[in-house]
Amino acid sequence: MIRSFRDMDRLASEKGPKRLVVLAPEDEEFMMAVKSSAEEGYTRPVLIGDREKMERLADQVQYDISGTEQIYEKSRQAIADLGISMLFSGEVDIAGKGQIPTAFIYRAIIREESKVGKGKVVSVISMWDIEGLEHLTCFTDTGVNITPDYRAKAEIVRNAVFLFHLLGYPRPKICVLSGKRGINGDIPSYQDYLELKKAAASGELGSCEMMAATSFLDIFSPGGRAFRLDGVDIGRTEFPHIMLVPNLATGNILVKLDFALKNVRRRSLVMSSRGPIIIPSRSDFQDSILGEIAAGVTVAEQIKGGTAS
Amino acid sequence: MMTNFNQIRDEAKAKGKKRVVIAPVPMEMDFSALSAALGSGLISPVVIGSSDALSGWVRGEGRRASEIEIIEESDSAKALGMAIAMLKKGGADILMRGAMDPNRFLDTVLDKEKGLLKERVASLVSVFDPPGVERVTFATDTYINGFPSVVEKITITENVIKLAGVLGFASPKIAALSAIEQVNPAIPSTLDAAILSKMAERGQFGNVILEGPLDIDCAVNRRAATRKGVHSAVTGQGDIYLVPNVEAGYLMAQLSVFIGSTPMACALMGVSRPVVLNLPFVPMENRLTEIELAILLCGRL
Asked: For residue range A270-292, what is the model confidence (pLDDT) as tens digits?
């Protein structure tokens, strides 16, 4: 079982290098991260993008790309299409987003998924490694679906369950987050929770366990009983593996609170049926991008070799 | 501007004793914050409810028990009605929710005729004392309005600006949050944020700097914002965070408390008198701060 980002980094250097296709590495932070991932032995990169920009940036970060496979292409959509098709054909193990609008990548993923008969909902899974918590957790969907309906949410949960199975969690705990509180009755996200609970019970979401909690208050203080801040201990809490967010705005705000919290690290990826796609936020820095690449390497390894033990 | 909860405490103490009416009290409730406020000489309490439910607390207060006024009324709705009438007549300064569920309590308190609603909508402001930050920060609406319209968001914004003003923020920096920092018609909250931002630019909220839409990384981290090409006085320096909906607000406040160990106290705004809601997601350590915030709001609403 992979319990932390440290586990991921270790596995990435042990099991790497994996083939990583990099879509438009035309930004300094991103190129630095790709360079480090090659140096750490995580990846053997294939770079697709504007030749002039890639060469200039590689030069700026002192990355010798003369021995690295490069494909020159300027059109953003063509870069996305080519990279994602390489992932689906098995030529590479991981795809990573550089300076390309995320929508182009999602479009390419949906196209490839429909070719292999999956037609899946594409969703972003943002993992958190929280100090004091003995396992990984995640928020999803934090990047694609603005206001997913129940059907889309079921797909989003399935995507995350697939990832957690790969990471060695045979029965991940799901928490459907909702703004339901003591006033104004039930809101749509709570109705979705009730439906998803049924779906989980009937096995439709894969092997997982639906928690009764729909908020952090429920998780840390079941029944709404009074609590003290100095008595909060996440290590002694039944904390979920997968937290489904009600909508994109909420998901984005929650998951990027790591910028304000000191005890949390974040790594995001898209889980396609053929492999992981790393999509760093435009505000992420090289350390976190490198971490996301390590996560991708780990997941690619688990897809190849079965679940982690 | 208030640097932390200790300063709020000091300011509240300087205000003199306030009369707090607690209603209804039909059963046992947690009186620890009240005891602390009573012990600090901040309040003189009037409790409307069943004296049976109160006997344990009153006994425990020893010689201070004489400062607790008890009005016997076993019917919860009547007890709350009496409390509101008392506030309106000036017989009390602050209303505190007793042991009635928040839904019923707010239904009455936020009734325009019978209750205390003053503005278009009431909203809850979560006030944080983040470790390592040199001032308190605010997020709103974290409880009351589910999916407010832009018209309601205008009032929610005015409500929090008023509270910030009372806490000494003469020109607060406000981040109107959404999923992304670009205006995108497919994401309605980005449009709302852009409207609020434009209104602020035209001076419609007074002396504030309001930027939106901002995603949370741009709002809390200037380096991240710069990397995204967002340049504003608000990035990395925000005092107030306006959330797009209650799911974001309610959950973000809890995440800050439970994962971030951030002290938090709440204030109900948009009402004519201070109301302490005593909501379950407020840590017990900070319940006294809620009373102190209410004290600072006396005569300022």
From this structure: 999 899 999 998 888 899 999 99
* Together in a domain, A42 and A156: no
- Residue B148 and residue B153: Cα distance in Å, rounded? 6
Restricting to B residues 136-195, those with a Cβ less than 8 Å away from any Cβ of A are 143-144, 146, 177-180, 186-187, 189
Q: B177–A253: do the CB atoms touch at under 8 Å?
A: yes
Structural domains in chain B?
A: 1-118+271-301 (3.40.50.10950), 119-270 (3.40.718.10)
Q: Is the peptide bond before B24 cis (omega within 30 degrees of 0)?
A: yes
On whether ipTM exceeds 0.90, the answer is yes
Q: Do the chains contact at A183 and B106, CB–CB below 8 Å? A: yes
A 197-216 residues inside an 8 A Cβ radius of B: 215-216
The closest of B167, B177, B179 to B137, measured between CA atoms, is B167
B246 touches chain A (CB under 8 A): yes
3-state SS string for A7-65 = HHHHHHHHHCCEEEEEECCCCHHHHHHHHHHHHCCCEEEEEEECHHHHHHHHHHCCCCC
pLDDT tens-place string over residues B68-110? 999 999 999 999 999 999 999 999 999 999 989 999 999 999 9
Q: Say if residue A287 is preceded by a cis peptide, omega within 30 of 0.
A: no
Answer yes or no: do A235 and A132 share one domain: yes
Which has the closest alpha carbon to B125: B286, B7, B267? Answer: B267
Residue owning tokens 């949906």: A110
Cα dihedral across residues B163, B167, B172, B173: positive or negative: negative
pTM of the model as a whole: 0.95
Which of B243, B261, B283 faces A253 most closely, judged by CB atoms? B243
Give the nearest chain A residue to B143 (CA atoms).
A181
**Same domain? A163 vs A261:** yes
Chain B residues with CB inside 8 Å of A281's CB? 217
In Å, how far is B233's CA from the nearest CA of chain A?
Answer: 18
Range of the domain at A47: 1-120+273-309
User: Does any CB of chain B come closer than 8 Å to the CB of residue A309?
Assistant: no
Contact of B2 with B11, CB cutoff 8 Å: yes
- How many domains are contained in chain A? 2
Q: Do A223 and A301 reside in the same domain of the chain?
A: no
Q: How far is it, in rounded angstroms, from Cα A194 to Cα A70?
A: 49
Phi, psi angles (nearest 5°) of residue A125 = -110, 120
Dihedral of CA atoms A225, A226, A232, A235 in degrees, nearest 10, equals -10
Task: State the CB neighbour count (10 A cutoff) for residue A224.
Answer: 14
Is the CB of B111 inside 8 Å of chain A's CB atoms? no
